[in-house]
Design brief:
With 277 residues, the chain is an alpha/beta fold. Helices cover 39% and strands 15% of the residues. It binds NADP nicotinamide-adenine-dinucleotide phosphate (NAP).
Length: 277
């Protein structure tokens, strides 16, 4: 079941589960996206940096899905945040995907060397030109997200950040709920590490389901949260969408939340900002 998440001034709707496509390239990306569309996915998450937008576009064209049925997200790499480069990057993404527009364009990572107001001004221009329907940010810590909210002329529809049971993101979640921003959890399985966690596998056994199902359910039982799990396997791609057979009790939710740890973050490259405490 892929229930729609509705946030931001009532007009922004995002399917809560999308296919993550980082590391999926060429034929691998084509077959994963085809499997996802056959399974009923409507939301695909990519980025100019992933080098797979053309493959994703080819898979969409082959599947013959109507554009209005799809929610496509792409991201602008942090070295392309000057207005001219940003607009070119978004145009390239739109063309590579074979789509007239993106449903959501995200700033992939902040770049303190470029004034945020200028970058967000260019994002607004992309929206005014019809290249993107909504704008958002990714990997922004709370102070940069608050700055974006202050300087952006357009609503920040979504924040995409790493989020899974090992990583506490309550500070960002509070801001997102207050400002009606969709929180998109990337690396929902911690790139796979969570799926071996003894607490999660025990809860999965109790429900006769998989660890992946339990982690996704933990995310879906949180207000305002969407997730973009990645799989290259058609069965797991379908399984990640067809969640909803499991309902976690308050005790189970709390036991999973208690798995958070100070070294739980998977993604912190050299260009990462200073994260929230
Ligand atoms: N904004 C950003 O900076 C950023 C950063 C990182 C990621 N992301 C986005 O988030 C997406 C997801 O994050 P991620 O790619 O790091 O990894 P992830 O979704 O946390 O985990 C992917 C791993 O889990 C396995 N898996 C998936 N479904 C499974 C299932 N049902 N049962 C068992 N194993 C399963 C996959 O293996 P198989 O392929 O073998 O199934 C793969 O090894 C990315 O693809 C990307 O779209 C965004």
């Amino acid at each position: 079941m892929n229930t729609a998440l509705s946030v931001t001034n009532g007009s922004f709707r995002m399917p809560r589960i999308g296919l993550g496509t980082w590391k999926l390239e060429g034929d691998g990306a084509i077959s994963a996206v085809q499997a996802a569309l056959e399974a009923g996915y409507e939301h695909i998450d990519t980025a100019s940096r992933y080098g797979n937008e053309e493959a994703i576009g080819a898979a969409i064209a082959r599947a013959g899905v109507s554009r209005s049925q799809l929610f496509l997200t792409s991201k602008v790499w942090w070295t392309d945040l000057e207005p001219g480069k940003l607009l070119s990057s978004i145009k390239r993404s739109v063309e590579s995907l074979g789509s007239e527009y993106l449903d959501l364009a995200l700033i992939h990572w902040p770049n303190p060397a470029v004034e945020l107001s200028k970058t967000l001004g260019a994002m607004a221009e992309a929206k005014a030109k019809g290249l993107v329907r909504n704008i958002g940010v990714s990997n922004f810590p709370s102070r940069t997200l608050l700055e974006a909210l202050q300087v952006s002329s357009e609503p920040i529809a979504a924040l995409q950040c790493e989020y899974h049971p090992y990583l506490d993101q309550s500070k960002l979640l509070d801001i997102c709920r207050e400002h009606r921003i969709a929180f998109v959890a990337y690396a929902p399985f911690g790139s796979g590490a969570l799926l071996l966690d003894p607490t999660i596998t025990r809860i999965a056994e109790t429900h006769g389901t998989t660890a992946a199902d339990v982690v996704l359910e933990w995310l879906m039982q949180q207000e305002g949260v969407a997730a973009v799990p990645r799989s290259s396997n058609p069965h797991r791609i379908a399984a990640n969408l067809r969640r909803g057979n499991v309902s976690l009790s308050q005790e189970e939710m709390s036991a999973i939340t208690a798995l958070r740890r100070s070294d739980g973050r998977v993604f912190s490259p050299t260009w990462a900002p200073q994260w929230d405490e």
